[in-house]
Amino acid sequence: MSMPFYVSPEQVMADKAEFARKGIARGKSIVALEFQGGILLMAENSTSLSKVGEIYDRLAFAGVGKFSEFDQLRKVGVRFADTKGYAYSREDVRGRGMANAFSQVMGEVFTREIKPLEVEIIVAEIGDDRYEDHRSNSLYRIKYDGFISDHKGFCVIGGKVEEVEAVLKNDYRADMPAGDAARLGRRALNAGAERSSELGASSLEVCLLDRGRSGRKFCRLSTDEVQGMLDS
Amino acid sequence: MLVRGSYQGSSFFELLQLDHRHLMPDLSAWGRSAIESVPHGTTVLAMRFSTGVLVAGDRLATAGHSVASRDVVKVFETDPYSVMAISGAAGPCIEMARILSVELEHYEKIEGERLELEGKANKLSQMIRANLPAAMQGLAVVPLFAGFDTRRKTGRLWKFDITGGRYEETEFDATGSGGLYARESLKHGWTRNLGRDEAVKVAVAALSAAADEDRATGGVDLERGIYPIIKMCTTTGHADATEAEIAACYREILAARTAGGNR
Fold first, then answer.
1. pTM of the shown model
2. Where is B258: in which H helix or E strand?
3. Which end of chain B has fewer CB atoms surrounding its CB within 10 Å, N or C?
4. CATH number assigned to the domain comprising residue B179
5. Rounded mean pLDDT of A165-175?
6. Residue A86 near chain B (CB below 8 Å)
7. Is residue A9 part of a domain?
């Protein structure tokens, strides 16, 4: 007769967390940086499967870990945002609510399912100059277990976070021009990657939340545009 | 796995139908008397011109024999390269335009690329078909849909019937209570390869003709300063004709009428 053996809840959680952390650390990093003209999101990614995406007028998403899992999360976010914006108004779709919704979903999966999500995400929100209480940007980082934290200036997920963060902590300044932000982002990603040569424009995925645009602030840069930004 | 809702596809309209039924406009249960008191939009038109497509609509909405609104908007940008114009029961029409614009944006975000113009027209026809029960009661939605086809590099336009039937027009079309008169005027004024400025003139003339014959169409209201909305879609996206330009076109039409001794 087989005996069901006892495993303490602490052990179960620790094992799950360990499993998720390993999966996430294997991947490459993504950085999000506030700069003069908005927020820049940069990932080391030469494939056509994008890690950064648009959620709503002022909201962007970035994910590391298992592609199928964070892409699914991104779609959940788009559905949530579009439904909310349709039922209320476009201004009612805000970063904090969005980040909380993600955190709830990820936390629920972590406690309920046997396999946790092997992902970590960033929700970036660009401020709205029209409203006094919405002016500042927000960067939220949400971990595999739903743990949520907000960041000022910059935020890193995936890969070798400490190495990448070290570069940013040293050299990040508020209100950088776009070119400086892009070069700093690339340098930070380089620090996390095990390679001697510098990352080229074609192996970077760069998206912006651009204060200067009207309506939907999100835009994806082409390789030429990325090169132009790095050279500016 | 993650989602509480059941819908997994890339259509916002289907997402509402499946997971958020309460947000869908359901108008099939209203009686006749309620329907007559609902504001109706009147004349809208669309035409191709040399570099794209133009869509125009007057600003009047009527409820029965009364004016419901003098400055209602019936021409909507549904995405950077397409426009929808509505005539019929204003409530469901405006709601449908709203859903379509969210639909196009939603698809773009989920799939990572825009729908082709033909795909957008097709989607609209499915939405009209879903409204059929309400249409049978009298709350018809009969829009015009037009846009710039970025692949074929040309403007295109479609008209629809209440069953969702979709018909592509190669020249122009007009619908609504004054649509017949507008079409008649377009037939005289429209030529192949009209320039942008001529196209605006032809549109103002057609709306004025419709307003002249049909009491429910607004036309140009110089006294109140209410002008029709004229939107154009070209390779660079949207552009509106300015009020000053529309007023100038209308004054020209009035002057020609007076000079000819016509009343």
1. 0.91
2. helix B243-259
3. C
4. 3.60.20.10
5. 94
6. yes
7. no
